[in-house]
Each structure stands twice: as structure tokens, then as C-alpha cells.
Write a structure and sequence with these properties.
Protein name: Malate dehydrogenase
Family: Belongs to the malic enzymes family.
Cofactor: Mg(2+)
Strand order of the largest sheet: 1-4
Binding site for (S)-malate: 149
Strand content: under 5%
Number of helices: 10
Largest sheet: 2 strands, parallel
Helix content: 40-55%
Distance between the termini: 38 Å
Order of helices and strands: HHHHHHEEEEHHHH
Radius of gyration: 19 Å
Number of strands: 4
Domain Malic enzyme NAD-binding: 74-224
């Protein structure tokens, strides 16, 4: 807060190391203890009972760090990127595979634990997490976990709209189809064979600025079409 230029310069130059500090997983601790953190107000506060302010504040920092734009609102899903990229390893199309979505029921959790345990014994799991994980050595081969983190997309999605001069996003605009798919394909296209060989289905954050520019260009081009 005392020196925003220095703050964002430090983040940009060390994004892979510091992203877990300003966003997941540290942001969860910040939410729990947000009332004990003294800082200048950075967003609207509704009441003393509201929680979770640490998440939007962390997201705002990523708009400038990853997207190169002033903080503003917006977010998008990134899970489809993992599925599209996983097809490069599994082959086929999305229609060729079955995807199971489980709730929080005890039975579902128990079945999930068994599936995960069996997959862990076979070394066949394709793993990605929203937070960073250390590389894993399995039978002499080192696997690197990719991050299924929406920070890949939501800053540059808005940036693409800004540079395309899209002054208004109408409700009827097919953001959930054309633009989101364009963004998904742009990000998935940044996953190279060298990343897949390490078990990664998302590109590394070390190249986030280059990746952000590529995605923003795709989003802007699609915005012009719409």
C-alpha cells in the first residue's frame, strides 16, 4: 500500500513464488483473520459480520499483476481448460469420456477416497489443484502438478474486453459459449508436450505474462466479432 509500483513489480518478477501468498492458499487464512489486518480500504464493506473480503482483494491484485490492467471486477471458470488439455493425454473428444461430479454426502466422499487411493497406486492420476503443490517423485519420475487456478483467465478476460473497446457486456452476449470457449482454447493451447510429459495440464505460471497477452488477444478478437 505504501508503494504500489514496487508491490506489483515484485509480483510480476516473482509471480510463481508469490502468487500463493496473495491468492490461494494464503487468502483463506487472510479471510479468517481479516479483522486483524490493518490496511487501507480497498473494496466495499457491507457489515462487520461479512467474511471473505480477502478473496476479492487478492483477486484485484491479480488484475494488475497478471493482466496488466487496473483492478476491476470479473471472474470466470477454468475447469474446462483442464478437461480440454487432458484430452491431449487421453485422446478422443469430451463426448468419449464420462465425468462424475460428487456432492458433499458421506457416501460420495467415501467412494471418492477409494477411487483416489486406487489411482494413487497405479500412478495414472492426472492431477491439478487450485493451489500450488510440490513436485512428486513416483517410481523414479518427477511429476509436476498444474494449477487449476482461475487467475489464468479472469484478469486477462476483462483486459481483452478493455483493449477491444467493448464498452458494455450485454446479458444476451454468449459469454458462456463463444468467448469462454475461445479463452479456454487459448489457454489450453499454451500447454506444450514438455508440460504434458511432467503431468501438467496447465501451463506454468512462470510464463503468465506471455500467456495473458495471448489470451487477451483471443478475447479481444472474439469481442470484435460479437
Amino acid at each position: 500500500e505504501r508503494n504500489e509500483r514496487l508491490f506489483y513489480k515484485l509480483l510480476i518478477d516473482n509471480v510463481e513464488e508469490l502468487l500463493p501468498v496473495v491468492y490461494t492458499p494464503t487468502v483463506s487464512v487472510a479471510c479468517q483473520k481479516y479483522g486483524s489486518i490493518f490496511r487501507w480500504p480497498q473494496s466495499i464493506y457491507f457489515s462487520l459480520k461479512e467474511k471473505g473480503m480477502g478473496i476479492p482483494v487478492g483477486k484485484l491484485a491479480l488484475y494488475t499483476t497478471l493482466g496488466g490492467v487496473r483492478p476491476s471486477a470479473g471472474t470466470t471458470a477454468v475447469d474446462l481448460v483442464g478437461l480440454v488439455t487432458a484430452l491431449k493425454l487421453l485422446g478422443g473428444t469430451l463426448a468419449d469420456h464420462k465425468f462424475l461430479f460428487l456432492g458433499v454426502g458421506q457416501a460420495g466422499i467415501g467412494i471418492t477416497d477409494l477411487i483416489v487411493l486406487e489411482m494413487s497406486k497405479q500412478g495414472r492420476a492426472i492431477f491439478a489443484s487450485g493451489s500450488p503443490f510440490d513436485p512428486v517423485d513416483y517410481k523414479g519420475k518427477v511429476y509436476t502438478a498444474g494449477q487449476a487456478n482461475n487467475a489464468y483467465i479472469f484478469p486477462v478476460f476483462d483486459f481483452g474486453l478493455v483493449i477491444s473497446d467493448a464498452i458494455r457486456v450485454h446479458d444476451e452476449m454468449p459469454l458462456a459459449t463463444d468467448v469462454s470457449i475461445e479463452t479456454t482454447e487459448a489457454l489450453a493451447g499454451q500447454v506444450m508436450e514438455e508440460h504434458l510429459a511432467k503431468g501438467m495440464i496447465y501451463p506454468p505460471f512462470t510464463n503468465i505474462r506471455k500467456i495473458s497477452a495471448h489470451i487477451a488477444t483471443k478475447v479481444a478478437a472474439k469481442a470484435y466479432e460479437l
